[in-house]
Design a protein that fits this description.
Rossmann fold; alpha/beta; 4-stranded parallel beta sheet; 377 residues; 6-stranded mixed beta sheet; single chain; 2 domains; globular
């Protein structure tokens, strides 16, 4: 990135005055050309809301926001990366774009590709939630369900791309994915720090699987510091499921080499044996004064229910970030005076099965007032 050129061409006040509401308002900070496709899904990724739900004020934080990425076109954070990757694919004339995915990245690629007529191929583990597989198929991608893990699908994708000359979108493999994901950092900066004039950067809590999202946030905030638009990078806190904690393990032991694990967690979006962007993900927390936390599947399910009571329907990976904040608050890692942003990375509709585990079943009653009186609260 040519930061001197960016400073000459734009400034915070020009960005803030832009009528563009998607991630493309930051086009001059991205290494791709304008992808065109006005009024298509490709042009509507990003620009997600920041909420301060009253239902979460019981945590005691003075400033608490949730960045709700479920409001993206295919309902997850991954739309940011796929929008930029598809823009790049069109620049270079790629015939086919391919990716491995547990569902969200694939759905994002399939949706963005469909918007502009770009052929896409998706490899997904056969165990991926049905709602995610449905998205892939409805968007018209060619889908292969792999009888194996995400990591095996990832490796097969690389082999297929090399064999057939496809353009590989894989997270942590294609550098343009991180360019899309850094745009969330730009939006947090613009809303919380530039417009609201918050006195100090918030602590950011985000779930971590392959490590590409937290690495993208880190890159975005570093670029803002380089441009002179931000004084310091916020503390970044990565949250991993206890059953899929390869990056957290590296952080805890103080090393920058990632040892694979046998991932077992209901949070499929962050279930990864060998994170492909693990080293940068470790550094994202360490270099910003942040940390890693691990949470159990039971804590994730409880977090789904608590967020739901605040009006936010999160998939397990998104709820994991909230569970991580709760743990950090209990352990004194953050204090009530610390401003905090939690990133909900995807919609609960992506995994209804997990959502139903988080709440009690609805009673079935006869259609009479007497039957209702027996069970009503």
């Amino acid at each position: 990135m040519d930061y001197e050129a960016i400073r000459r061409k734009t400034a915070p006040e020009r960005i803030s005055a832009s009528q563009e509401t998607s991630l493309w308002r930051f086009l001059l900070l991205l290494p791709v050309e304008d992808p065109g496709g006005a009024n298509t899904t490709l042009r509507s990724a990003g620009g997600t809301p920041l909420y301060s739900p009253p239902g979460l004020q019981e945590l005691g934080f003075t400033h608490l926001w949730i960045k709700d990425e479920s409001r993206n076109p295919t309902a997850s954070f991954k739309d940011r990366a796929s929008a930029v990757v598809v823009a790049r694919a069109r620049e270079i004339g790629a015939a086919v774009v391919v990716t491995a995915s547990t569902g969200n990245a694939g759905a994002a690629l399939a949706g963005m590709a469909a918007a502009v007529g770009q052929p896409a191929v998706i490899f997904a583990p056969r165990t991926a939630p049905p709602a995610k597989i449905a998205q892939l198929l409805v968007f018209g991608a060619q889908v292969f369900l792999v009888n194996g893990t995400y990591d095996q699908a990832f490796d097969l994708t690389i082999q297929a791309a090399n064999e057939f000359g496809w353009y590989n979108r894989n997270t942590g493999y294609n550098p343009f994915t991180i360019e899309g994901k850094k745009t969330a950092a730009f939006e947090i900066w613009e809303t919380v720090l530039y417009r609201s004039r918050l006195a100090r950067p918030p602590a950011i809590f985000v779930s971590v699987g392959d490590g590409n999202i937290i690495s993208g946030l880190h890159k975005g905030f570093k670029e803002l510091v380089t441009l002179g638009w931000l004084d310091e990078v916020p503390r970044l806190f990565g949250v991993q499921a206890e059953g899929s904690a390869a990056i957290a393990n590296a952080f805890f032991t103080g090393v920058e080499s990632i040892t694979p694990v046998k991932a077992q967690t209901l949070a499929d979006s962050i279930s990864v044996d060998l994170p492909r962007d693990g080293v940068r993900a470790v550094r994202a927390a360490r270099l910003t004064g942040g940390a890693y936390l691990t949470v159990s599947d039971a804590e994730i399910l409880e977090a789904i229910a608590e967020l739901g009571r605040a009006g936010i329907f999160a998939e397990p990976a998104g709820a994991a970030a909230f569970a991580g904040l709760q743990k950090a608050a209990r352990e004194g890692v953050v204090s009530p005076d610390d401003p905090v942003v939690i990133i909900n990375t995807g919609s609960g509709l992506k995994d209804v099965g997990a959502a139903m585990q988080a709440v009690p079943e609805a009673p079935i009653i006869e259609p009479t007032l007497q039957a209702l009186k027996k069970v009503i609260r």
